[in-house]
Write a structure and sequence with these properties.
binds 4-amino-1,4-dioxobutan-2-aminium adenosine-5'-monophosphate, alpha+beta, OB fold (Dihydrolipoamide Acetyltransferase, E2P), binds magnesium ion, single chain, 434 residues
């Protein structure tokens, strides 16, 4: 029967009396005396099905459980219900896989807590709103790659088993690599810079990033999807922000077209940025202190500060995004370039979306001697990082880039409470399964 299967969205368009086969999962089944009413769900939608008592296997059908997978054959007829539309009068069916009872989570009822839902995630994602989150995520992934491709970036795939990182060492996961000690990659930073210098000028990667962060928050994962890009021959960090601004204009404009139904279902109206404000850390700290949030000169923004900032930006600029520029040197890694006239600053920025950091970027220091001095300032011996140091010895152009978190992008767009809602199978300090 499966060879005759068509999708529900197509069955819904057929003329009455057409014979069709549709397959999917039982969302609802209600035996009502001489009739059985079924709501069947497949990847394209839902449809009402009716079985009458004269069906030979009526009794067998009445015992089918919710979330079982079946294929049905029958005739299209117009529904007598108020909502109208097509329904299927069942003439034959096959049970492909009967679902055990009780279901471990209440699919579609939204009553199970997130931990339980993730324990049984493949059942959870059958619920159309949850399913919509991941169809939107899939399109964001594609649109991001499309954008970089269109802008002449080359996609690179870099090792996730590494011998060292260039971000904070505290967040590295140790692994035993035969007789050596190795780490899971905490960012493709080294490799992005390497292949800008490698003649590609513009590179990007969308791949897993690992962070041994003990923090159990609604925004941290130990494994997430990084969207990283790096570009050469830039004038300054504003060239990078220009590209990132275009990236979000593109993603959100296109997403409204390709995920219209999913966005409607989740009641999300994406707001395409017009001009993302670029405000320096100094300006922002002054503004924040007027709103009762005081931070000292060398402080980073904490999550509360980002949240307040998000509100201010919405009110004063009518935008959801803001670039926070010129982070203090104190809170940035050694490879961020310092402005000519400010040894305590960096040519770096974060992108905040609806009050949460979704990206960090900077112009990198490409002059070997200065980079070496900056590393020493942070207690790092550049010469011991041979593969990294070499990049800056053979014609490395001025360059910079950004690292975005895909999971956080999805979370912020869809206004989800927890980043775990935006990833199929989250990893955090407590969770290693499924
Ligand atoms: O801010 P991060 O640590 O910056 C870097 O990795 C730099 N190499 C980027 C660069 O090119 N300068 O990470 C980048 C982004 C964050 O803004 C956030 O969106 C996401 O990655 N991210 C996380 N997402 C989920 N869980 C975590 N633990 C995350 N840590 C960072
Ligand atoms: Mg950051």
């Amino acid at each position: 029967m499966l060879d005759k299967r068509i999708l529900i969205k197509d069955a819904l368009k057929k003329k009455p009396s057409t014979k069709v086969a549709i397959a999917g999962w039982i969302k609802q089944i209600k035996p009502l005396g001489k009739l059985i009413f079924i709501t069947l769900r497949d990847r394209s939608g839902e449809m009402q099905l009716i079985a009458k008592q004269d069906l030979k296997t009526f009794k067998e059908l009445s015992k089918v459980t919710r979330e079982s997978s079946l294929i049905f054959e029958g005739n299209i007829q117009e529904s007598k219900q108020k909502s109208g539309g097509n329904e299927l009068e069942i003439k034959d069916f096959q049970i492909l896989n009967q679902a055990e009872t009780p279901l471990p989570i209440d699919v579609g009822a939204g009553t199970s807590n997130i931990d339980k839902r993730i324990d049984h995630r493949f059942l959870d994602t059958r619920e159309e709103k949850i399913n919509a989150i991941f169809r939107i995520r899939s399109k964001i992934f594609k649109l991001t790659a499309d954008f970089f491709d269109k802008e002449d970036f080359t996609n690179i795939t870099t090792p996730k088993i590494t011998s060292a990182g260039v971000e904070s060492g505290a967040e590295l996961f140790n692994i035993q690599y035969f007789k050596k000690n190795a780490f899971l990659s905490q960012s493709p930073q080294i490799y992005k810079q390497m292949f800008v210098a490698g003649g590609f000028e513009r590179v990007y990667e969308i791949a897993p990033v690992f962070r041994a962060e003990k923090s159990n928050t609604t925004r941290h994962l130990t494994e997430f999807t990084g969207v990283d890009m790096e570009m050469g021959f830039i004038k300054d960090e504003h060239d990078i922000m220009d590209v990132v601004e275009e990236l979000f204009k593109y993603i959100l404009t296109e997403l409204k077209k390709v995920c219209k139904e999913e966005l409607e279902l989740l009641e999300i109206k994406p707001i395409v940025p017009k001009k993302i404000p670029r405000l320096s850390m100094k300006e922002i700290k002054t503004t924040l202190s007027k709103h009762g949030k005081s931070l000292s000169e060398d402080d980073d923004l904490d999550s509360e500060a980002e949240e307040i900032l998000g509100e201010i930006i919405k009110k004063e600029y009518n935008e959801e995004f803001v670039f926070v520029t010129n982070y203090p040197w104190e809170v940035r890694p050694f490879y961020h370039m310092k402005p000519k006239d400010d040894k305590n600053g960096t040519k770096s920025f974060d992108l905040i979306w609806n009050g949460v950091e979704i990206a960090t970027g900077a112009q990198r220091e490409h002059r070997y001697d200065i980079l070496k001095k900056q590393a020493t300032e942070k207690g790092i011996k550049l010469d011991e990082m041979e593969a990294y140091a070499e990049i800056f010895k053979f014609g490395c152009p001025p360059h910079g880039g950004i690292g975005l978190g895909l999971d956080r992008m999805v979370q912020r767009l869809l206004k989800l409470n927890n980043v775990r809602e935006a990833i199929l199978l989250p990893r955090d300090p407590e969770r290693l399964t499924p």
